Amino acid sequence: TTEGNPSGMVEVSAGVLALMMGDVNGDHQIKYNGANNDKNEILGAVGLTTPNNIVPGYNRYDVNMDGVVKYNGANNDKNEILGAVGLTTPNNIVIGQMNGM
User: Fold this and answer.
1) How far apart, in whole angstroms, are the C-alpha atoms of residue 48 and residue 66?
2) What is the SS3 assignment for 10?
3) For 78-95, b where at least 16 C-beta lie within 10 A, e where not — what string?
4) Is 79 in a helix, a strand, or coil?
């Protein structure tokens, strides 16, 4: 399980570890709520006053790597962050992330 995982790693198969997605702001934490959270970075990328906007491109805001940055709607990137910290624990912080962008 990844819910509340403090290491930021998940086992994708026996003995194979990967980092979880979601450290949009590069602070080595995945945060959905609170100060310096990652979902607000996505909102800033699509536009604070245009949260339904869609921005094309693969970049650090495209958390699910589908080629678009979305804050609202189906397949949005902020839900990936919520999934990483835990659907029922949105105030969790996952630490130890690396940001390659």
Assistant:
1) 21
2) strand
3) bbbbbbbbbeeeeebebe
4) helix
Model pTM?
0.79
* Coil vs helix vs strand at 42: helix
Instruction: Count the neighbouring beta carbons within 10 Å of the beta carbon of residue 69.
Output: 25
38, 31 contact by CB (below 8 A):
yes
Q: Quick check: helix, strand or coil at residue 70? A: strand
Whether the per-residue pLDDT at 22 is higher than 70: the answer is: yes
- Using a CB cutoff of 8 Å and minimum separation of 24, what contacts does 52-61 make? 59/101, 60/24, 60/26, 60/99, 60/101, 61/24
